Amino acid sequence: MATGKNGKPAATSTQKPEATGKSRASTKVSAKTSSAKASSAKAAAGAGGKQLGRQAAGQKNGKPSGKPKAKPAAPRRTEPSPLQRAAWHAEDIVLGRVAVGARIAGALAVLGALGLAVRPFLPLGTVHGQGAGQNAGLLGLLGWLPAVVILGGAGLLVLTSRLTRVGLAVIGAAGAISIGTVVRSIWLLGSGRSTLDLPVGGQALRGDEYAAGSGLVLQLVVACMLVLALVAVLLGWTSTVMDDDGGLDRRRPAFTALGFFGGVIAAGAFSMSTSSSSIGIAPPPVTAQVGLERVAGLLLAAIIVVSCVLAPTLRPWLSAAGGWLGVAVMLGGQSIENIIAVQRSADLHANLGSYGQLVVPVLVLALAVAALLVRAPAEQPTEV
Prior knowledge:
Layout: H1 15-60, E1 76-77, E2 94-95, H2 100-118, E3 125-127, E4 130-132, H3 137-159, H4 164-189, E5 211-212, H5 214-236, E6 242-243, H6 252-270, H7 291-310, H8 317-344, H9 352-373, E7 382-383
Antiparallel strand pairs: 1-7, 2-6, 3-4, 3-5
Helix pairs in contact: 2-3, 2-4, 2-5, 3-4, 3-8, 4-5, 4-7, 4-8, 6-7, 6-9, 7-8, 8-9
């Protein structure tokens, strides 16, 4: 056996194949290990893919995917729908002190209502000791009965501190309409007037002068009381506490436009001739009148428009209905009294002015009813 330089046996050719076989075995083991790792990675990847597939399928089928859900958006708060509540419910009305001026207006309104109930039974003038002028009696009382009830009720509301500003709105509107009545009554009390200037119903002939009757005097007194009540309303309005939450304030512009439209129609109707006649005894329209009579007619027309426009600006909202209601009942009493005079006369006939004056109080009353039935609008959605 051959030895090396250090005395160790030298490597023979038979030992090299053995080393080569070991290295080949280790290479095979490494290859198997790598293939096993690759198979494990593929299996893991396949399992992950299947899991993602299951999650995607769950999302498509409406099932939770297992992923953390996103934070929900902030809730949105919306007010109730427009069909929330009608104005007449008055659940949010705040009442407070009642001014002395308001109580004075309430007392004057009650007295004025009593005067309106009595006046239709009294003659406006006398001729040779006989009553002349419209003496409407029970029919006249029926025409003024809504004004008597509404005006008297408004006075009681103020005196009892219930819905005070609603009562003041009714009283103020009635007092405003009465300004024209005061001026006309002063004109009728002047000298040189004949019975044709009165709503005589065809009782008198042209040229018959009259003396002032108890009905005309009472008419002037009642109108003056209502005008004084208007002054008391203006003085006591701001000191009288009554308000709401303002939920219907967005309705005011629309109702103001409607009030202007209705007021113009009403003013036009009450400026027309109230009847026609074949013998020329019908009263002329306002534009053809002279003196205080014309002033009274123009004042009435202007006050009707202003009252109908200002009514929806009053607070609380229920006061708007009160203002229109006061205008409606006062105009209704005058129109019914006129139509009674026309129907009782053989020489007077109803015309467009007669029927128009009957219709416009209903139109103004419709505005008051609409103000009571209108509902608060819904607010725009607001985020919390």
